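Dock S-adenosylmethionine; give full complex structure.
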Amino acid sequence: MKVHHHIRAFEQVLASYDGKLPLHRHLVVYFKQNKQMGSSDRRWASRYIYSYFRLGKALAELPALERLAIADFLCNTDLSLITDHIFPTAAEHVAKPNEEKVAFVKKQYPSFEIAAIFPFEAQLSEGIDQQAFLLSLFVQPNLFIRVRETHLPLIKARIEEAGVAVQELSDTTLALPNGTKLEQIVTDARLYQVQDLSSQKTGAYFQPQPYDYWWDCCAASGGKSLLIHSLEPKVKLLASDVRETSLGNLQERFIAAGINDFQKKTIDLLQNNDQILHHYEFDGILLDAPCSGAGTWGRTPEMLYFFEEYKVANYVKLQKAIAENVVKYLKPGKPLIYMTCSVFKQENEEVVNYLLEKFPLKLERMELIKGYNNKADSMFVARLIKQ
Ligand SMILES: C[S@@+](CC[C@H](N)C(=O)[O-])C[C@H]1O[C@@H](n2cnc3c(N)ncnc32)[C@H](O)[C@@H]1O
C-alpha cells in the first residue's frame, strides 16, 4: 500500500537527520545517496520532514508518526496519505483557517497547547503578537527579492510571463512563492538580490551619506552591505567577518552586482583588533549580530525543533562582546546599527539597554520588524548614536 511507502520514506529521512547541517543541505545529500527515490518521493519526504519540525516541541509525548499526521494537517491545506491514514477525522477540516484547525487538534488531543511549539521562557520582544507569531510557524515564508526601482516593471513582467504569482510590495520589493526557480526566469543575476522583506526594511535605519565610510562588521555573504550600497552607491565600505569563506561569497556577490570598490577583511571581533584597526574611524557601523535566529525559524523549522534555550545566554554574551569591540571605531555623532534576526527580548532590547548603560550611546529608535503577517522573517533593529 502506498501509505506504507510514505511512512517508510518519512521514518528513514527522520532517522538520517541529527540537526547539525541545515535541513535543506542535508536533504540534497540524502537524496543523492538515495537515488531510488523519484521526484514525487522526494517532494513528499521533504514536505513531511519540514511539517514535522514545524510542530516544534509540542506533543512531544506522542509517537513520531502521530505527531507527523497532526503537523502535516496543520501545515497544509491538502490531505496527505499519512494524515488520512493516522488522523482520518482531520480530513474534513484540512482546508479550514489555521485557528480552526488548531482548535480541532486541541479537541482531539487535549494536551495540545500551541504555546508548546515554541516553549521558551525567554520573553518575546515588545509588540509581538504571540498567537500570530506561533501560527506563522506553520507556514513556509515567501521568497523576497530586492530590485532597482527602474528594473522592477521588467522583472515583474518576466516573472508573470513564467506563470509565477508575484506581488509588488514596494518600488523595490517583490514577493514570490518559496521554491520559485528565479535563476531560470531572470538569468542576469545582477538584476536582483534575494533578501527577506524584514531584512530589506532594516535599511530605513541606515541613512548613509555620500562618501561616508561604513563598516559592516558581521558581513557574512554581504546581505546588509549590498543593501547599504543600493541606498547610497557612493558609500565607502569595509566588510568583515570571522569566517573567510563567507567573505569569499560576499566578494562574488559584489562582483556579480557590478560593485568593485569595497574592502574586505577577516576579523574576529572577540579579539583585540587595535593592531589592524587603530587608524580606522567610521561614519556608521552595521552590527548584524550572530543570534539564535528565532525570527527566521519559519524558514528553518529544524532549528526550532533542536534549539536549546541555554544558547540564548551564549548569544547575548557574544553580542555584547562584539558590540564592545566595535563602538570605539565609531566617530562621535554617528550611528551604530544593531540588528538581530531574533525575537527574544534578551538578544534585542536588553542588549540595547546594556549598550546604553555601558557606552556613550543614545538611542534614536528601535523596532522589532514583524514578518509574521507578511510571510516573512522577523528582525530587530536599533539606531544608536555615539555621543
Ligand atoms: C547574522 S550573520 C550576518 C548576516 C549578514 N549581515 C547578512 O546580511 O547576510 C552574523 C555573522 O556574524 C559572524 N560572527 C560570529 N562571530 C563573530 C566574531 N567573533 N567576529 C566577527 N564576526 C563574527 C558570523 O560569522 C556571521 O556571518
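Observed: The chain has three domains: 2-117, 143-194, 198-386.
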